[in-house]
Amino acid sequence: MDERRYSLGQLVIYFLKLGTWGFGGPVALVGYMHRDLVDDRQWLTEEEYREGLALAQLAPGPLAAQLGIYIGFLHYGLLGAALAGLAFVLPSFIMVVLLGLLYRMYSGLSWMREVFYGVGAAVIGIISISAYKLTLKSVGKISLESIKTNWLLWVFYLIAVVSTVITQQEQIFLFIACGLLYMIIKAPPGWLKKPAALPVFLLAGIGFWTFSKDTLIRIGLFFLKAGTFVFGSGLAIVPFLHSGVVNDYHWLNESQFVDAVAVAMITPGPVVITVGFIGYLVAGFPGAAIAALATFLPCFLFTVILAPHFKKIAKNKSVKAFVDGITAAVIGALVGSVIIIATRSIVDVSTALIAIAAVLLLIYTKKIQEPYLILIAALLGIIIKTI
Known about the structure:
- There is one protein chain.
- The protein is mainly α.
- The protein has one domain.
- 76% of the residues lie in helices and 0% in strands.
- α4 packs antiparallel against α12 (274-306) and α15 packs antiparallel against α16 (370-386).
- The termini are far apart.
């Protein structure tokens, strides 16, 4: 059923625009695609959209980017998937590289530190709310009935929270173990398959700024792993990045990491694009390009490989149970990561008040978007530090 209701050029232009103006995180971006492509333009049917959304939730990688890649693949194959994904990610990638350049040049100046004093606190509030919403969506409501029904998912979730806080790292094998255990208990398959081999990553030598080949290889392998093992919302990648970037490799310090998350909040497009900012700080433009490519490559490959066979895969209860188990543990790790970052970013009464205010605004003011909240926090940081 390859009825093309739009040209490839129209699709690319749409995703360039969405990548440039699409604020609000993965849930908002997925909603924009439904409104624009199903309701308004009728480029997709409701069934096509739902199949794409289900695939995006099932496979690892950033949700909105995967859905965009699937939509490109639907009528225009590999070329459509590649161009749609690139058009969606490119605008925000350019923005974070420019912000990384400015950050490197001016982070030593007092006004830059004042800006991120307020911004870092607001980010804690934003990701706390996101972690709460993800918990409700992926694990269950915080009620006695939900805990009784999904008790095993809650166990995985709490183990991941405690493990992340104590070790200050995410345990990838814990996630996989949770997925396998939940699959075996809830929907045991007839026979277990080994997961497909990880894709080979090719490094691109883009030669400006200071970098070392060894660092680029480490960046590529680390972000490839992050892109392969993260399911659902872009914010789910935060604990992976925190444990590797801050604790294991010491590429960034705690405040720089919080600033990197803040940059993702104030730019449009997928939240995961923060990897480009981190890569830039570590190894200039080549680091940014490698980090972004490595993070989105698994997402692209999973989508285009699974898309032709997805109707069969989606009905497999074992696969669904495996993803449910992993997701519960990953969301638990996100909550643990929020706790760790908060203990280091909430340094005084002012930062605590900014974080609480961000939480309350997001709960009670539905229309306020994260970029505006970040801007307000930046202004508050300047005001507080100059008084």
